């Protein structure tokens, strides 16, 4: 009903192998288990040795004049809006993760170094294995839009939602401090730490502490948890998300290091998601366990009322709306993918064009940073022409450079090499999530531009490949002329100080360091200067933009 896959799409999005597993490295599993078991074990040890600690909530039963009196409408609306967006963000995030269902702490992403993977597949070493083949199927019940290799659409939902999620959060926090509502969430004394622990000992040993009336104030553990969600989880998810952007990473190399590495940021981004989901489950369970009707009225109607069902109905309404949005988003993803792509371009495309797309990347890494592994992507060309060229070491290869230029040229590899060699060590960011650091050597695009002299009307450069896209037809992509003129943008014939291998794009592949990997065409045969990307292919900026609804600008 919501999908109309043809045979080719079915083979990609609905593969025979749809197993969903979670495989931890033993060490990682031990750490995760310890994070849960150690506190619970300590709580039990304290309880068995010393009995239940004094319940600190007993002090809180009577509200004081300094306490917030109830929940204003802005707070209640912000709370539900936040939930609505969070569901969209988490579900689309899971779809993105499924496209490279492996998490690492190292930038090289070598198979076997993942601390957690959601695939039973061990990467074969006896044949070419691409990241696209490695993508996993995710049920559309869990993911938005789910299925396999739907990262383009999933990212649109993720990035369309994020600005509104952040805006809602910023308004919420501002109003907290503009009113006295911050007193609910922000502890004002370190006493909150031992108090929260005492309450945790209660819960962990199956005792309910005295329930203060949430209309005025929360118990210490509640306060600490809510504080952590608003003031720790939310900023961490934002920062770790930003740390994954190629435009940001290539401009501010120190930024992903806040999380250890770029993959560290990705892992933290996932762990924060787990924390959001775990929090939501426990939060809802506690709301139900400590007076469902009254709690729902607090957040629904803003009244301290344990009789009326209105709060419950409001909660149910929000839930229904959220489910309806999920179903609607599923429909849009498959019935109106182009409109979704264009909406994303109107919101984020413009946002990025005016901000991070302006950054100039720098080739910053050192030889020692080069990673031992570098995933492969794309289909090796199987045209007669490329095979023949490859068989003779690309001696007869001619790069044709034309379009709206004064001086169209055909250049052999020797010609290109005579024009100049620039060597850069940079980090590659695939849209699917993996990264790698390598040295790339080749001709700076600005030198090619100087040589061919594009007309004033040129805004865009198109790069065509000998290879084909996922659904057939020549692979190509476009870049703004501005990005092509930035530092470290080269047509490379060298990787890690050796001639480019066939898999990595021989004889020539593009490097545009502030963009995602899919914009870096491999097996380049032709360069064309054009007035607009709309004149090329189906007009959306590249093969993946045309067929898989990827973004025209790939700074994130
Ligand atoms: N011709 C062509 N170029 C391509 C692709 C492709 O499928 N065909 N895949 C792109 C993607 S998605 C990535 S991440 C990089 C991968 O480069 P690598 O295989 O050298 O790691 O190449 C890009 N260039
Ligand atoms: Mo990619």
TrEMBL record:
The record lists the organism as Hymenobacter frigidus
Domain Cytochrome b561 bacterial/Ni-hydrogenase, by residue range, is 71-301
Q: Mind listing the UniProt keywords for this protein, alphabetically?
A: Cell membrane, Membrane, Transmembrane, Transmembrane helix
Which residue ranges does the record assign to the Oxidoreductase molybdopterin-binding domain?
393-534
Superkingdom of the source species: Bacteria
Q: Could you identify this protein by its name?
A: Oxidoreductase
Q: Which residues cross the membrane?
A: 28-50, 77-98, 157-178, 224-248, 268-292, 312-332
Main location (coarse class): membrane
């Amino acid at each position: 009903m919501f999908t109309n896959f043809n045979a080719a799409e079915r083979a990609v999005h609905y593969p025979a192998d749809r197993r969903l597993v979670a495989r931890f490295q033993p060490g990682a599993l031990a750490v995760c288990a310890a994070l849960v078991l150690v506190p619970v074990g300590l709580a039990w040890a304290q309880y068995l040795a010393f009995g239940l600690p004094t319940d600190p909530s007993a002090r809180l039963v009577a509200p004081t004049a300094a306490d917030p009196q109830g929940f204003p409408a802005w707070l209640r609306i912000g709370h539900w809006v936040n939930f609505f967006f969070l569901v969209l963000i988490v579900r689309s995030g899971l779809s993105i993760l499924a496209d490279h269902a492996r998490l690492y702490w190292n930038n090289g992403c070598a198979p076997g170094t993942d601390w957690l993977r959601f695939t039973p597949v061990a990467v074969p070493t006896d044949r070419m294995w691409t990241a696209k083949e490695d993508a996993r199927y995710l049920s559309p019940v869990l993911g938005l839009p789910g299925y396999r290799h739907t990262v383009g659409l999933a990212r649109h939902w993720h990035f369309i939602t994020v600005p509104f999620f952040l805006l809602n959060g910023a308004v919420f926090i501002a109003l907290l401090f503009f009113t006295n509502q911050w007193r609910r969430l922000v502890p004002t004394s370190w006493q909150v730490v031992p108090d929260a622990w005492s309450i945790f000992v209660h819960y962990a040993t199956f005792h309910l502490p005295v329930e203060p009336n949430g209309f005025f104030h929360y118990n210490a553990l509640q306060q600490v948890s809510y504080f952590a969600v608003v003031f720790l989880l939310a900023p961490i998810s934002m920062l770790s998300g930003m740390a994954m952007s190629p435009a940001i990473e290539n401009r501010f190399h120190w930024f992903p290091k806040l999380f250890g590495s770029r993959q560290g940021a990705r892992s933290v981004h996932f762990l924060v998601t787990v924390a959001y989901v775990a929090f939501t489950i426990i939060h809802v369970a506690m709301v139900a366990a400590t007076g469902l009707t009254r709690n729902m009225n607090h957040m629904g109607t803003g009244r301290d009322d344990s009789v009326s069902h209105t709060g419950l109905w409001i909660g149910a309404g929000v839930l229904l709306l959220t489910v309806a949005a999920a179903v609607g988003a599923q429909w849009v993803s498959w019935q109106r993918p182009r409109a979704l792509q264009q909406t994303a371009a109107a919101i984020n495309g413009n946002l990025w064009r005016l901000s991070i797309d302006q950054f100039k990347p720098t080739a910053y890494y050192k030889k020692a940073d080069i990673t031992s592994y570098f995933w492969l992507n794309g289909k090796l060309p199987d045209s007669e022409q490329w095979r023949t060229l490859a068989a003779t070491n690309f001696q007869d290869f001619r790069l044709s450079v034309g379009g709206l230029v004064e001086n169209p040229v055909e250049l052999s590899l020797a010609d290109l090499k005579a024009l100049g060699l620039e060597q850069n060590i940079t980090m590659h960011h695939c849209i699917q999530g993996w990264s790698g650091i390598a040295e790339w050597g080749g001709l700076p695009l600005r030198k090619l531009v100087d040589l061919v002299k594009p007309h004033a009307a040129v805004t865009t450069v198109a790069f065509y490949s000998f290879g084909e896209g996922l659904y057939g037809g020549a692979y190509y992509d476009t870049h703004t002329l501005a990005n092509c003129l930035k530092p470290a943008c080269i047509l490379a014939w060298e990787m890690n100080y050796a001639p480019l291998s066939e898999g990595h794009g021989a004889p020539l592949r593009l490097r545009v360091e502030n963009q995602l990997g899919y914009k870096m065409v491999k097996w380049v045969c032709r360069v064309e200067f054009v007035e607009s990307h709309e004149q090329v292919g189906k007009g959306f900026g590249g093969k993946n933009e045309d067929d898989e609804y990827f973004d025209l600008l790939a700074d994130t």
